[in-house]
Amino acid sequence: MNVLRQLQRYYKEKMSFLLLSVLCLAAATALGLVYPNLLRKLIDEVIVPKQFDTLPVLALTLIAVVILKAGLLFLHGFFGGRLGNYLAYRLRNACYEKLQFLSFRYYDTAKTGDLMSRLTGDLEAIRNFIGFGFAQLLNLFFMVLFGSMMMMSINWQLTLISLITIPILTFVALRFESKIHPAFQEMRLALSSLTTAVQENITGVRTVKSFAREPFEVDKFALRNGRYQENQVNAAALWARYFPFMELLASACIIILLGVGGTLVIRKALSLGELVAFFSLIWYIINPMWSIGFHINNYTQSKASGERVMELLQQHVDVHDEPEAVLLESQNVKGHVTFDHVTFAYGNKMPAVVDIHLDAPPGTVIGILGGTGSGKSTIIQLLMRAYDVNQGAIKIDGIDIRNIKVQSLRSQISAVFQETFLFSSSIRGNIAYGLKDVSMDDVIRAAQLAKAHEFIMELPEGYDTVVGERGMGLSGGQKQRIAIARALLKNPKILILDDATSAVDMETEHEIQAGFQEVMQGRTTFIIAHRISSLRHADEILVLNEGRIVQRGTHEQLTNIPGPYQDVYRIQYADHLTRVSGKAGGQV
Ligand SMILES: Nc1ncnc2c1ncn2[C@@H]1O[C@H](COP(=O)(O)OP(=O)(O)OP(=O)(O)O)[C@@H](O)[C@H]1O
């Protein structure tokens, strides 16, 4: 019950619903005991002595009991439903909130399909158990307790003899529980691997098709589907063995009761009415034993689900606000960024960046150039505090970013990445993402600066055009321009362009950059680019190799000294340089 106890904090305000639901069910169960008593009275006091005058009273009592019991069962369902849905609602919100605040480190390895199945299937199992299963499991106990007490009051010897197989039933049920629980855990894992396969396939459908990997994907899915099926079959085999055995034991109870009870009636040690009442009461013991498997199964499923949901909710958030963290007020932030000998490694890997040292006073433009995997994006990720540095410190206006509230830090930074994510909403909504009270004029101005306005106006519904999931229907360059407009509209103190213009042609890039010059006055900008043309106006350019800064300086300085920057410059400007030197040669 440990995990279910942990879940209590999500429904403790509605604990009264749980109590009411259990009470109503227990009362309905207790009321059910009136039936065998009525039967006994009917046989012993009406039918056998032929005293029919009490029949109407008995009939009316029966009707009243039926109505009352129905009312109690309704209330059990009502309170249970309210409780289960309240818990599911709270858990869903809590999980979603957790997902928002979990750090990038978690998402480096998280699987979308697995998370989706926690938020759907697992939550549903918990909702069912807390809403109904728990009360019903308790009710089994009440049924056995009330039933055996009543039977004892009629004839305790017959009760003990009839219930002789009950310990064996309990033992079998508990053994079954210990086997079905791991089987269910396996099943849930297999299901989440199945949903992960579907989700990844849909997300990466273009890649799959372009590599003609459909047959491979089908086989991969079939393999996982096979594993899921195998798990289902294993669980079904457990059930299949369990049920006949339980039936055998239950039937043994009935046979013993009929044999011994019948003999007692013949010897007049028991009345016929008592035997019939006994026969009806024994189901108060057998029925719970029958369904104990189902309820235990329900319990184990929700326990496994609870563990998976709690595992998500208890994930450590490694980037979080320190108690004394300060809030950055937009109007006071200058945007002075410093990296003080920063070193960082992802997990146990080799450091991705080593001893990075830089000073970017407000309004400066820092260019970062380097080969693939040289650590350019890592520098940016660290500045946004996606990860905490291992050594050194990053400061904004002299404050270590670990001492700044994460949200207020990120609200001062706008980043445009190489890969643009667009939400399935209108273009206007995408540009104004995360901002409140933005006027249409501001949205248009940002789009104009990002050179997106013209193509947006050509779309069927202009700024109200709804883009498909992940921006389907737009070209890579168009998506990038929308992302740039989004970043510009935020009006940040620090702007990061991480290969942000890689998907637009040189001419558009030039135009966008001209726009940047205008809006980036007084803002600190980091530009990561592979094209020298994007970096040449930077105040300082850092050249990275294997996580270390191997060259730094302005474009003019770096082109004049031999080194990687000059090499890249020569390659990218080969045509231009040949033309220039050709002209110079001709003139000589
Ligand atoms: N989330 C991550 N988890 C583990 N290792 C990572 C992660 N992101 C990057 N790395 C590793 O860190 C190193 C630096 O990566 P980074 O993304 O900073 O390079 P980059 O210079 O931006 O490359 P590119 O130009 O290809 O984008 C690489 O060795 C990369 O494999």
UniProtKB/TrEMBL annotation:
Organism the protein comes from: Paenibacillus sediminis
Q: What is this protein called?
A: ATP-binding cassette subfamily B protein
Tell me which InterPro entries the record gives.
AAA+_ATPase, ABC1_TM_dom, ABC1_TM_sf, ABC_transporter-like_ATP-bd, ABC_transporter-like_CS, P-loop_NTPase, Type_1_exporter
Give residue ranges for domain ABC transmembrane type-1.
19-301
- Looking at the record, the residues that make up the ABC transporter domain are 337-571
Where does it live in the cell?
A: Cell membrane
Regarding the membrane, this protein is recorded as: Multi-pass membrane protein
In Gene Ontology terms, what is one molecular function of this protein?
ATP binding
The coiled-coil segments of this chain are none
Q: Which residues cross the membrane?
A: 56-79, 125-148, 154-174, 248-270, 276-296
Q: What keywords does the record list, in alphabetical order? A: ATP-binding, Membrane, Nucleotide-binding, Transmembrane, Transmembrane helix
Its chief place of residence is membrane
Q: Which domain of life is it from?
A: Bacteria
* SMART domains given in the database record: AAA
